[in-house]
Specification:
Oligomer: single chain
Number of strands: 0
Order of helices and strands: HHHHHHHHHHHHHHHHHHHHH
Strand content: under 5%
Helix content: over 70%
Shape: globular
Number of helices: 21
Structural class: mainly alpha
Radius of gyration: 23 Å
Distance between the termini: 30 Å
Length: about 525
């Protein structure tokens, strides 16, 4: 592949990541308002019950056919290269058909098993209406996600940002606030607020797919259905996705079984906070599979792309990890309130696991683009088994700390497997020497910030994290630039951003001064 095509794909990836990152930060802001509203207004016990309901429906969404969406991201870019609208329409309709059957079945199972799950598994009868309310979500979510995934397969991130990160979250927050604070519906207000967000976001996603990218489904093109091809590609990923979603919720399930709803609530303040570390990886991940697929179709340098994305992710995640791991209690106090500070150690452990998970870049997407879906399934299965065993061994003795150790350990384990398999199959590794400059910049800026604020206030109040964080991240960016943490690719992308925003001269001048 010519060098200019490599740059074109990386620029598209970076642009999509920038748009997605902006949306994700907004999404996390609204999500934290939602969680803070429920957590503060209803307390850890009710918040824990809501988290258990979300766990059950999250597993249900995946069982209903979630990993089929990976097939859309793989095949649609390939059909677009061939200008084959009939196959694009066919693969979308095939995905919708698979999802329809799966989501109706899974939704029914969730609804009718609500009493068994609430009374016999979690010993919490109040969970019954919560579980039954969430039973409709797999159907709504599968259609909504299919429409969004089509826009992503077209290498367009802005529609997902508008729909998922802004519109859905705002609807959920407003409806939940109205139902809890005005109607006094308690935790069920949060359930119906969640459902309302998914329903209306699905309508908006369909509009974007058909009116901004299409017409596709409403076109007169006769569809070339892809049921066999889609199932053959996706079925290992369906199993893998089940393993992945169980991996994400198994700690919550065992906490609910061994402990109580309050422990689940405490843990689910630490867990989503630790997930913030993964924002850069998720922002890039919006377009990585479709970009790897496009690059593979053009016989491009996927190894260079993997190293670049891994370096970008680590460059943004490492400083967040330092803050989150060292000041976990203060951060939870700031976000959720003083009653959640006891989950600080769990947050630090989860942050370490997520740093390790993000440091290998997007190896799984590279393997998916190459068709190694069975390997991903085996990895996720091993990951799940390890997590289950560790949760059973650790939670009865260590509580939420045991759950955090189990999740972090399994995350580290599976990423070691992925790195080894990528080298075995493709002779590619995700690491570059630039990572050492990131480490130096983060540790040095943290030390300087600590010395400054230790002189100003000792002991430091929890709110001092805000000004200290601003100083820390500013120092980190300055030091990283000064010691050569950016490549020519990075500078070109920064210049492109400057050009798009009308500040090209100023941006070039600033980059030249700082580097």
């Amino acid at each position: 592949m010519p060098e200019d095509e490599n740059r074109e794909i990386l620029n598209t990836l970076a642009k999509g990541a920038g748009i997605t990152a902006f949306g994700m930060f907004a999404s996390k802001f609204f999500t934290y308002l939602y969680r803070a509203l429920v957590g503060r207004a209803l307390g850890p016990e009710a918040y824990g019950q809501l988290s258990i309901g979300m766990m059950i429906v999250g597993i249900g969404i995946t069982l209903a056919g979630g990993p089929v969406r990976n097939g859309l991201k793989k095949f649609i870019p390939e059909y677009r290269e061939k200008e084959d609208l009939a196959s694009i329409k066919g693969v979308i309709l095939s995905a919708l058909g698979i999802n329809l059957v799966g989501s109706i079945f899974i939704g029914g199972v969730i609804f009718f098993s609500a009493e068994i799950l609430a009374n016999q598994v979690f010993n919490t009868p109040d969970l019954v209406p919560i579980i039954r309310g969430f039973a409709v979500v797999p159907l709504l979510s599968r259609f909504y996600n299919t429409f969004i995934d089509v826009t992503i397969a077209y290498n367009t991130a802005r529609y997902k940002v508008i729909t998922t990160n802004f519109f859905q979250n705002i609807v959920q927050l407003l409806v939940t606030a109205a139902l809890i604070l005005l109607a006094g519906m308690g935790v069920m207000g949060a359930v119906w607020g969640w459902i309302a967000g998914v329903f209306f976001a699905g309508i908006l996603a369909f509009y974007f797919m058909e009116r901004k990218l299409g017409p596709i489904l409403t076109s007169r093109e006769k569809p070339n259905f892809q049921y066999g091809k889609l199932i053959k590609y996706s079925y290992p990923l369906i199993l893998s996705g089940i393993m992945g979603i169980l991996q994400g919720w198994v700690d919550t399930a065992f906490l609910g079984y061994y402990m109580d709803s309050a422990a689940v609530g405490l843990y689910n303040a630490a867990y989503p906070t630790a997930v913030l570390i993964l924002l850069p990886e998720k922002a890039l991940g919006t377009l990585t599979l479709s970009s790897f697929s496009t690059q593979g179709a053009r016989e491009g340098d996927q190894g260079m792309m993997l190293k670049t994305t891994a370096r970008w992710v680590f460059m943004f995640t490492f400083p967040s990890f330092l803050i989150m791991s060292l000041f976990s209690g203060e951060l939870l106090h700031l976000l959720f309130g003083s009653q959640y500070t006891q989950a600080g150690l769990a947050l630090s452990i989860l942050a370490l696991g997520n740093l390790a998970a993000s440091s290998t870049g997007h190896i799984a997407d590279l393997l998916k683009s190459k068709g190694y879906t069975r390997a991903i399934f085996y990895n996720n299965f091993s990951n799940l088994i390890l997590n289950v065993i560790l949760n059973i061994l650790l939670i009865p003795h260590l509580g939420i700390v045991g759950a955090a150790v189990a999740t972090a350990s399994s995350n580290i384990f599976v990423n070691i497997l992925l790195a080894g398999e990528t080298w075995r199959y493709e002779k590619i590794n995700p690491f570059s020497k630039k990572i050492f400059k990131t480490l130096i910049s983060g540790l040095l800026s943290l030390g300087i910030t600590y010395l400054i604020f230790e002189q100003l206030s000792s002991p430091a109040p929890y709110w001092i994290l805000v000004p200290a964080g601003i100083v820390f991240f500013s120092l980190y960016a300055l030091i990283l630039l000064k010691i050569g943490g950016l490549t020519d690719y990075d500078k070109e992308i920064i210049h492109t951003v400057g050009r798009k925003t009308g500040w090209e001269k100023e941006v070039r001048k600033l980059v030249n001064i700082l580097t």
